[in-house]
Design brief:
With 466 residues, the protein is α+β, with helices and mostly antiparallel strands. It has a domain of 197 residues: Cysteine proteinases (Cathepsin B, Chain A, Alpha-Beta Complex), CATH 3.90.70.10. It is 51% helix and 12% strand. The strands form two sheets. Strands 3, 4, 5, 6, 7, 8 and 9 form a seven-stranded antiparallel beta sheet that branches. It has a two-stranded antiparallel sheet with strand order 1-2. About 9% of the residues have low confidence.
Length: 466
């Protein structure tokens, strides 16, 4: 029956499909936004949401680039005059008194003391696997004797947020030692922007040094099974940086290869498996010994241990000469030089040797190896996690290479503060100081607490005159 109160031109219409869809999308958005404020939900949805957005954005950029009629020709490398880079300690000194105190320190004081025989006497026992495999192993730690089955008590599990496995693993390691600190307390200081893709071992060490001074931190390279197991037997968990495949693609033709921090908590020699915590997967996981060694290799088998001072004697006993950073580097030089020769077509063997050559001061030799590794197809994200190639380019004056090596990754994720800094250094080398300062300031907005950023800003403020 017609409603007499309605105008004659009124017609009842069915709700359109478009309105229904918009209403559903609005509800989903509101629910997602509300759920994102809850840490437990956020930790599980942040990565797929970010990956979806990144895939759409980068896919659109790629389509636009392919439709362009003009492509810039490949630039010929130009070498610029290297710039004077002051020591970090000097540039960070807040006063003349501070600088004077630094100049009187002897960083190699421990090495200049007469070592005890137990620290230096053992010679590396080389144990090469099949050369066709992508790693070669030498034993650095105390050789294992008999069956070993060690399992440390796992700390309370905390699922990591987006790009937050470093702070989450560090918080797990601190909880193991009775220090209560969740990933957000840590990331607020060393990783304030969630879309910044990575934090380094140095970032984690800085947090512990400044906030938990009762614990000691040791970072070394060229680790092996015996070293990790020896530390576990001493009751000390070990943080490793390993390579894994991400579940979600972030751009078209993404190779999915990324770096991940894990906390090793146990070892079973009978089954040849390690127990570990991965803040993206779970608390008590198992991984085959061979798989862990392979995944660990791309990053120089770097490891970090955090322990109370009373454990220092045990750490020295396990690490032997590798306890000392300079001797650890010399051992790594021997190993990775041999790896480079044995595995000439392995990009990680070449890059690892380049890293230790760079640390030893041979930038030209390191650059040749880095270029070779790039030609052997390193993973797409690799320079997000490994910056030695960028630092070598800076010290050699290769400004154009810094642009070439950072531009694509920054185009995919402009919130990478370390790559942004090195992009700025490229402009400084080319004497475009204003543009270099813009990149430094952008990095400062992403992470003002990063030593890499602080160094660049202090350099700009104290060394540049333009």
């Amino acid at each position: 029956m017609k409603n007499k109160n309605r105008p004659f031109f009124y017609e009842k219409k069915k709700t359109s499909f478009g309105k229904i869809l918009l209403t559903i999308l609005g509800i989903v958005f509101i629910v997602t936004l509300a759920g994102y404020q809850i840490p437990g939900i956020r930790q599980r949805i942040s990565e797929p949401l970010f990956a979806a957005g990144s895939l759409i954005l980068n896919g659109t950029k790629e389509i636009i680039n392919k439709t362009r009629m003009y492509h810039e020709p490949e630039k010929k490398r130009q070498t610029y005059d290297p710039i004077e880079l002051p020591d970090k300690e000097v540039l960070f000194a807040e006063s003349l008194e501070n600088l004077s105190a630094i100049s009187q320190e002897d960083p190699l004081a421990d090495l200049r003391q007469t070592p005890t025989p137990s620290e230096y006497s053992r010679v590396a026992a080389w144990e090469y696997l099949d050369p066709n495999l992508n790693y070669a192993v030498n034993s650095n730690g105390q050789p294992l004797s008999g069956a070993v089955n060690v399992k440390l008590i796992p700390p309370v599990f905390e699922h990591r947020d987006l790009f937050n496995d470093g702070p989450a693993i560090l918080s797990a390691c601190l909880r193991y030692w009775g220090i209560v600190a969740n990933q957000y307390e840590i990331s607020h200081i060393i990783h304030p922007k969630s879309t910044d893709p990575f934090v380094s071992f140095d970032d984690l060490q800085k947090y512990v040094t400044e906030n938990v001074p009762d614990l000691q931190v040791l970072i070394r390279i060229n680790g092996d099974k015996d070293t990790v197991v020896g530390l576990l037997k001493a009751g000390i968990p070990v943080i490793l940086k390993i390579q894994q495949k991400s579940i979600y693609p972030y751009w078209i033709n993404d190779d999915h290869m990324q770096c991940r921090y894990v906390l090793v908590l146990g070892y079973d020699s009978e089954n040849k498996v390690f127990n570990y915590q991965d803040t993206a997967k779970g608390n008590t996981l198992e991984i085959a010994e061979s798989e862990l060694l392979s995944d660990w290799y791309p990053y120089q088998r770097e490891y970090m241990v955090i322990y109370p001072e009373e454990k220092d004697t045990e750490v020295r006993e396990v690490l032997s000469e590798n306890y000392f950073e300079e001797l650890n580097l010399q051992r790594a030089l021997t190993k990775y030089r041999t790896d480079s020769e044995l595995l000439p077509n392995n990009p990680y063997a070449q890059y690892n040797f380049g890293v230790v050559l760079h640390r030893d001061g041979d930038n030209n030799g390191a650059w040749e190896l880095f270029e070779k590794a790039k030609g052997l197809l390193l993973p797409q994200r690799f320079l997000t996690y490994e910056t030695e190639m960028l630092q070598t380019a800076l010290e050699l004056g290769y400004g154009d290479d810094l642009e070439r090596l950072t531009s694509d990754l920054l185009d995919k994720n402009p919130d990478d503060e370390v790559l942004t800094v090195y992009r700025g250094w490229g402009e400084i080398l080319r004497k475009d100081y204003q543009k270099g300062e813009e990149f430094f300031n952008k990095a400062d907005k992403i992470n003002p607490n990063s030593d890499t950023v602080i160094y660049a800003i202090k350099y700009k403020d104290t060394m540049l005159n333009y």
